[in-house]
Amino acid sequence: MINTPAITKRRIVSLVPSITELLFALDLEEEVVGITKFCIYPEKWFRTKTRIGGTKTINIEQIALLQPHLIIANKEENVKEQVEQLAASFEVLVTDVNNFDQALEMIRQVGLHANRADKAEILATSIKDSFASLRPAPLQPIVYFIWKDPWMTVGGDTFINDMLLKAGFSNRFAHQSRYPTIALEDLRHLGACKILLSSEPYPFKEKHAAALKQLLPDAAILLVDGTLFSWYGSRMLQAPSYFRKLNPLL
């Protein structure tokens, strides 16, 4: 990592969609100069900020032209070799978020590096307080799909799993790690449970729910907003009210 002197107004490039939205919430309109093509929120930034490729296909030459003081990446969302190449020339903050508490700490760290420590602390505290009102009991068993062909779910060591617990759901694949691939036929042996189809990264639609219902007629199948389960950052403020709508037991 390259050490840089303190700068009042830092030029920032974000390689992570949820962190781009966080930077907007921290009032960094002028500081953020580059985002990925998947950074669709806020919509204004998507239209006006320089796009530097995808999360896993970043354009290093284009980033260099922006001469950033800080690049924010994520261990899971970005390619290690590309991040290391950037770190040879620029200051890079590599985030790693696998649960709720780490998400709050990430917000604080981003705020510290972007000269918005006070705003970040207020945001992190607000998120923590909003989740404190959730009282999930008993937990409802679910399967949460993020992809099809192959069908992929989430393991217990993921941020999504932690958010499922906050929402009052018990992940039937929490005993596995990261993002396991499963056979749909295996779901027949799990017993009664809900199936949640996420809106991202795979954009599940009603047609997918209908097809799955034919295979598993006894399952309750719901389409859910994947950003409220997987986006760590300012969007977490919206999650508790959404979770209450999904789970009346909260």
Describe the model.
Mean pLDDT is 93; it is low at 1-6. The protein is α/β, with parallel strands linked by helices. It is globular, with a radius of gyration of 19 Å. It starts with 11 loop residues before the first strand and ends with a helix. It contains ten helices and eleven strands. It has two domains: 12-130, Nitrogenase molybdenum iron protein domain (Rossmann fold, 3-Layer(aba) Sandwich), CATH 3.40.50.1980; 140-246, Nitrogenase molybdenum iron protein domain (Rossmann fold, 3-Layer(aba) Sandwich), CATH 3.40.50.1980. The protein is 36% helix and 16% strand.
In short:
Keywords: Signal. The chain is of the alpha/beta class.
Uncertain residue ranges = 1-6
CATH class (first level) name of the largest domain: Alpha Beta
- Radius of gyration of CA atoms, rounded to a whole number: 19 Å
Structurally, how many domains make up the residues? Answer: 2
Trace the largest sheet across and list its strands: 3-2-1-6-7
Tell me the β content: 15-25%
Describe the main β-sheet briefly: 5 strands, parallel
- Helix tally equals 10
